[in-house]
Amino acid sequence: MAEEALLPAALEVDGADRVPQSHLDLLAKKGFYGFAAPDDLTALDFPSYAAACRAVESLAGGCLATTLVWVQHHGAVSALAKTGNRELRDARLKPLAEGRLRSGVAVTAAVRPGIPMLRAEPVDGGWIFDGAAPWVSGWGMVDTLYIAARDADDVLVMALLDAEEGESVSAGPPARLVAAQASRTVTVRFSRHFVPRERVVQTVPLEAHSKGDPESVRFNGNLALGVAGRAIALMGDDSGALSAQLATARRTLLGAAAEDVPAARAAVSQFAVRAAAALAVHVGGRALLTDAHAQRLTREATFLLAFGSRPAIRTALLKGLGAQERSAGGAGTA
């Protein structure tokens, strides 16, 4: 699918304002919206976690924007599969697993260090969400939003909301991104938005939620491996040692202990930049043209240096690149 459907359209999608509906429909038809669903609700049968990761890598190597929108979906599916809210599970899990309903995700605003950007306040019958959720991808292409807000006791309230604007919900314009512009990534603002108890998937202490973060970080590293792999494939026999280095990076990320995942994730992100740069040099002057895959992959590799990052990943990346954290009085913004 990546080779026959996604890659041939990748440059066109790179310049578009949204991922083609046909791409997402194809993923649904092939069963990929059930990627994280329980066995009885998915047609996919990966022999191992490593094989599942390779599938994500392959899709990202075909079209990063499409994969970015699709991959956001699985947080909702995984959470609903485990929720104690049986009514919500029964109503939404199967349509989500089949791709008849499609979900985005907005968790970062609640789990970021310090004061949460999106706050939860208990009220009769549910919760009030107030604040902003940045980096919501797929707006206008998803039906629901798996979202987290944080209360005064550092408990996350995870809910499944309709992905639509209203009196208390508004979405800004799509961010102007260096890559994956077609993902339609926006900031969604909540103005004392009432979330009924029936739409809450779970409540979980922030500390407990954070213990599962290494697996999310590991999983997202497959996007960088996909970009690196595509750059290497486009070099063909001239890729030299890069193919072996890709295999090593893949094994390291997959096998890293939880405490080593940030460093492994940083390494694959840095490797993607190096592989894309090698392709640009290999192609030569054509890499400067906007209809060349080399410039697209270079921008996508840059995008993935910061996408889904964490402080430990940032520190490892800066160290690997020969730099260091900005001092308190240092210049520059990002």
Helix content: 40-55%
CATH architecture designation of the largest domain:
Up-down Bundle
Low-confidence stretches: 328-334
Would you give the CATH topology of the largest domain?
Answer: Butyryl-CoA Dehydrogenase, subunit A, domain 3
| Number of beta strands | 8
The tally of helices reads: 14
Shape: globular
Description:
With 334 residues, the chain is α+β, with helices and mostly antiparallel strands. The protein folds into 3 domains: 2-98, Orthogonal Bundle (Butyryl-Coa Dehydrogenase, subunit A, domain 1), CATH 1.10.540; 103-206, Butyryl-CoA Dehydrogenase, subunit A, domain 2, CATH 2.40.110; 212-320, Butyryl-CoA Dehydrogenase, subunit A, domain 3 (Up-down Bundle). Helix content is 47%, strand content 17%. It is built from 14 helices and 8 strands. The chain has helices at 2-6, 10-14, 21-29, 49-62, 64-71, 74-82, 86-98, 108-111, 206-210, 213-235, 242-255, 261-283, 293-306, 311-320, and strands spanning 103-106, 118-123, 126-136, 144-150, 155-162, 169-171, 186-196, 200-205. The strands form 2 sheets. It has a 4-stranded mixed sheet. It has a 4-stranded antiparallel sheet with strand order 2-3-7-6. Helix 10 runs antiparallel to helix 11 (242-255), helix 10 packs antiparallel against helix 13 and helix 12 runs antiparallel to helix 13 (293-306). It starts with a helix and ends in a 14-residue tail after the last helix.
